[in-house]
# Entry
Amino acid sequence: MKLLQSKKFKLPQIFFITERTEIKEIPIGVPFIFGDEASEPYLVRILEYEVLYQEAIASGYPFDFKQILKDNGYLDLQDWYYDHPVYMEYTTEGISTDVVEEDLKSLKGNTGKFKQFIKDSAVYVDMEKLKNLNVFPVWLDSIEKAVHTNIHNFAVYNNNMYNKKLEGMYGAIDLVSPNRNLIIIDISGSIPKGVSSTCLALAKNLASSFYADILITGSKSTLYAYEEMHNLDIETIYDENGMDNDQTYFKNLVSSEKRVYKTAIVFGDNHSPCYAWSNTFNRNNRNISREDGKKLCIWEIEKLISFHTDSSTHIAGYADWFQVDEVEHISDWVKYLK
# Structure
């Protein structure tokens, strides 16, 4: 356990922990981020970007964020190519699109190391949008709010419990396990690397705070259950999962074993498991409409929080096959820097 510190300037006081057992040692409401030891410099860099960006916003003047970064010694900035895939509706008969010009060439991801992608200066992820989820311990507003959340989420009154003091079936407070949640992070070539790498850097903290399984989808889709989160290595995630778009692995995951999730948080763009042409490993797969995909999917999702990189009306593509009662769109959480 240590404080995250920058050699450039003062950061907010946030503890960094690398072992799950250390979480129990931190009082409720004390800010912390949970992750791998190797991710510390990346988390520091994200926070440094955050401090500079918020100071620039607070000035009230127009600014060139890339130049601000360079002026503060970030001379290793990366500008990675990415695309804005259009939204397409697949049917069993074929493809229909609301865009006249469409390039169906499969994206060839410029595979690189995580430590390169985290330097992407083409975009900025607005951390305030993530904070508003109220699932990060580091951003809880107060100890009282944290206690309130814990009590109301995980403690219920059970009328049938035996009360020892009253010696009868008068009921008592019963602590219950929180509902499991799901986080999907698309790391394909069309996603700005600053977006996917920022989400990956926070992945273990997200999973721990939100009691969530994490699904990484690129050329293939890999599910990391909450209990197996120690196997998630963000350093090798791009090499292991590739940067194309998957249909086969995703289809097998959502159709082979039933899973029930309270909430799914999905980071992505219009690319979807509907697209057979986007599958690296089996180009013979057919296009699957969204309605047919929902019939294949046996996962149950109660609420969807969609982080679409450039749309506030379409859901992130890898949520296309989920049947949900409630959908929340998070808009303007990615700033495309000119």
